Amino acid sequence: MHCPIRHCAACCAGPRVADEVVLTTLAPIDIATDRCKGCGLCVDECPKHVLELDEMVVNALGYHPVQLTDAAGCTSCAICARICPDTVFTIYAPVKGARA
């Protein structure tokens, strides 16, 4: 497998690209907004303050889900994922030793 990201079927199915390109095009986190109950715990605990509740969106559960406001500011520290009671976060971090 040429891609360092095991679950990335989208990039592996397409033409082969350099690992640096693949890593820089992914968002640092993925949020399952359909399951988010808008409790705000992640917003309060984010050390970089790059998460906020999206007041313009209401999901199927009737809540304002969290959104990432600054992808470049996110360090993939996973504090949001650890505090979330609904496990809505998937964290993507660069491979250790990879060039930025």
What does this structure look like?
By secondary structure, the chain is of the alpha+beta class. It has a domain of 63 residues: Alpha-Beta Plaits (2-Layer Sandwich), CATH 3.30.70. It contains 4 helices and 4 strands. It is elongated.
Question: Helices, strands, pairings?
Answer:
Blueprint: H1 9-13, H2 19-25, E1 29-31, H3 41-45, E2 51-53, E3 66-68, H4 79-83, E4 89-91
Antiparallel strand pairs: 1-4, 2-3
Can you give me a brief rundown of this structure?
This protein is an alpha+beta fold. The chain has a domain of 63 residues: Alpha-Beta Plaits (2-Layer Sandwich), CATH 3.30.70. Helices cover 22% and strands 12% of the residues.
List keywords for this structure.
two-stranded antiparallel sheet, about 100 residues, elongated, 4 strands, Alpha-Beta Plaits, about 20% helix, alpha+beta
CATH class category name of the domain at 29-91: Alpha Beta
- Helix and strand run: HHEHEEHE
Number of strands: 4
The separation of the N and C termini measures 21 Å
In angstroms, what is the radius of gyration?
A: 15 Å
Extract low-pLDDT stretches. Answer: 15-23
**Percentage of residues in helical conformation:** 10-25%
Task: Specify the structural class.
Answer: alpha+beta
The averaged pLDDT comes out at 82
